[in-house]
Write the structure tokens for this entry.
Amino acid sequence: MKNQTKAKINKGFYSSLKISSYICCGIALTALVGVILFVMIRGTGHISLQLLFGDPKDGDTILPAFLGTLRLVAVSILLAVPLGIFTAVFLVEYMRGKGKLVRLIRLTVETLAAIPSIVYGLFGYLVFVVALSWGYSMWGGGITLAVMILPTIVRSTEESLLSVPDSYREGALALGASKVRTIFKVTLPSASSGIVTSVVLAVGRVVSESAVLILTVGMVVNKIPAALTEPGTSLALDIYYFANFGKPDEAAATAVVLLLFVLALNLLAALCGKLIRKKYGDNA
Amino acid sequence: MKEFDTELGISVTGCNLWYGELQALKNIDMEIAEREITAFIGPSGCGKSTFLKTLNRMNDLVENCRIEGRFIIGGVDIYAKDTDVNLLRKNVGMVFQKPNPFPMSVYDNIAFAPRTFGIKKRSELDEIVEKSLRRASIWDDLKDRLKKSALGLSGGQQQRLCIARALAAEPKILLMDEPTSALDPISTGKIEDLMSELKTELTIVIVTHNMQQATRIADKTAFFYLGELIEYAETETLFTTPKDRRTENYITGRFG
């Protein structure tokens, strides 16, 4: 009798857990979908040809921001990805993830990954804008962003390399392959889907960053920079600019463009991942 | 560096090996004849796999591993300073306990070693791939799946693929570390048949936990116990009239 009551209470407890998990999921989903829907509804109507591709002389346009974003992505990724991957290869394949130096590097990397981006912005400002007196420039912004995403790329590449079974490395070495060949022909390709994912996440961070850019590339909207040494803008910066200068409609329209940009990026990442898995037959 | 000579077997004298403070191999002397199958048996942790791995220097990868002794393979002192470890491993192939095909196509798996040693021409590679798969008697199973991922194969197919991959390097000696312990009886049978075919061209050294397997395929058998080579003789002699008490206890199943 007593046991039955207990079972009943338990049953009630578990079903209330179940219901609350449904409710929480519902709230979270509403919030997320709500943001997307709100931005879409608020902004889509204000997207115009002038805003997208117009001549800066004829009025507000985000063409400079679009090009600026692409340039910042290119600079930061081209710098940070090779640097990050080689650092991770050194840590995992040559130091075997052990030793004082590795612990020191790992501590540094983890600390850097947790720092708010405005600190990176300040660093970029003090080094590139002030100390090197480059002034505001796309280079300064790109390099600062590269420093910002480097820890994430190192960490996730490290994780991907660590998850490659040692039997692959042994197999390659036992066939007479050198260590370098083993790393580049077997270990890195086996880790590639994880590495690609981390790179795409890094691109996402670059695209959505604004604090760093305000302090490093300046916020010169409506002007296509002639070179990487000039100041410029990005999509995220344009949203900040429009919202700050009493143009909420343009801000919303730019947000829609940024949203679609990130969506396209994620689809691209999924596609890359799928192709890589197909190529290497990774069923996981 | 001297070329490896096929007509010579393996000669080991005074082999001692330590993992840190622990001595895993004690004073092993052994002559392994060419074009024969030699089986290493013994309970877990007796040093048989460790000894196998000294023969292609895979123990180099283990930290704090110290090795003493003279290891002559095909007339070459394999621990000499000027020995090219990569060339040694090309000549002394290895098949592991767990099939370890690379996550790439069947073709690329087989072509890995030839490519490592500089063969780039497609026609040449095609030829090596087909020949290696045929030597591992798996060509008929895989000829239509060369471009498919090797990870999609069954365990037995994967292991024969790994044998083919090792054969593609044209080794003179093949070391096999419990190659069938992860496989079902039918796949095991196929791999045993394959070994008997291969010994006409190769020297095969196999570590096995399965004493029946040793009696089925091995010409000579060595019994290891606690890091020592206790007894080494013709397989039939070792299993019918063992000289050492410990060998007798082990093969009659009194311990292990």
Notes: The beta strands of chain B are 10-19, 22-32, 37-41, 65-73, 76-77, 92-95, 173-177, 203-207, 220-225, 228-234. The interface with chain A takes residues 56, 58, 61, 63, 86-90, 93-94, 96, 98, 100-105, 112-113, 116-117, 148-152, 162, 165-166, 169 of chain B (CB under 8 Å).
